[in-house]
Amino acid sequence: MILRGKILYHGEIVEAGIEFEERILQIRKELDGKNVRGIILPAAIDVHVHFRDFKEKHKETIETGSLSALHGGVCLAVDQPNCNPAITDADAYLERVKRAEKKSYIDYGLNVALTEENAEKIGVILKKIEEKGYVIPAVGEVFLQHSTMQVSYETLKKVAGIHRITVHAEDAELVKCNDIPNFDCRPPEAEIKAVKKCVEMDSFHFCHISTVESVELIGSSSSTAEVTPHHLLLSIADAERLNGFVNVNPPLRSKENAIALLENIAAVDIIASDHAPHTPEEKKEGVPGFPGVETMYPLMLALVRKGVVGIKTVTERLSTNPAAIFGLRGYGGIEVGNYANLAIFDFSKVEKIRGSTLHSMAGWTPYEGFEAIFPSQVYVRGVKALEGGEVLIEPGFGRTLRE
């Protein structure tokens, strides 16, 4: 297939043709093909989602979560292991990826959990999974805060370097509760302290960083970090509007901090959604987490349209950098040889986000009424998967990450 139109190529928008089958074959200005309305961008990689399923299938399933991702222009999602049951051994890992192979609309990766109980045998667990041919993006997210999966700094230090490790950086001693609103008892200092201790220990990837101080600490180290749209666009000032649905970990911060994070987005390596759906009833009880895999790319492109952030900055953090940092071969930016994972966005089609029209089982969004630009077409590995809101593939089309 050959598409022709405006393409983001090597950080610049060029008028050219792009020929592809499963992978991109060539990109040339003189190449003619089917004209496209909008801009051809790389489909996103979301390295931080919680697709629930199994004992939490009332909140989300791999099928519904991946469908929501597809509608948001995401071609690959990396699922976190703190599901129920948690992914703490090879058997649980293999059971979950087998489910993904039958149910996921998009390509799928899965991390392995680190706990106090499995830390001494984590190397053996990784080897067993890799012997089956699966690629494990990371160990983590590793919890340093109050959690049934909390890990001590001492344990983290012992396993540092065994594999790529992602860290949920909140210090347990400074996390006091999870009441509504939880920003009153999960202070910024909890994150900053944990980041400081970790970067002095080794190199890690830090999940959902929420403070400018943490960004500065990580930026002066060999570690990497991600930031979420909710920490860029929401703050404690949104508590009343969210009407009790405000809790997320790490919590929302001050408006000033959110503005500063957005202004310093170039200092952050990755944008990830931390898609964490819960039912409205659970949210009313203070359970932390926001749905966001479907709205991540559209929200960021609305900011591009307004001139708040550059398109190169956004696509690098949603595609190029995730592929490079997590060693996702064949994924990333629009390059010859990469998979033809493409999302076409018409910047004249701005719409308001409505929770009732999104595809997650959550049924609500913290971004109700926000402006967004959703993809008009999405290609996954060269196959047109979405056009005009119509899904053209079946569950199970997505591949799990394999050697």
From TrEMBL:
Residues at which substrate binds: 50-52, 82, 278, 288-289
Keyword Ribosomal protein applies: no
Entry GO CC: cytoplasm
EC numbers, comma separated: 3.5.2.3
MF GO annotations: allantoinase activity; dihydroorotase activity; zinc ion binding
Function recorded in the entry: Catalyzes the reversible cyclization of carbamoyl aspartate to dihydroorotate.
Protein name: Dihydroorotase
Organism the protein comes from: Archaeoglobus veneficus (strain DSM 11195 / SNP6)
Organism classification: Archaea, Methanobacteriati, Methanobacteriota, Archaeoglobi, Archaeoglobales
Gene coding for it: pyrC
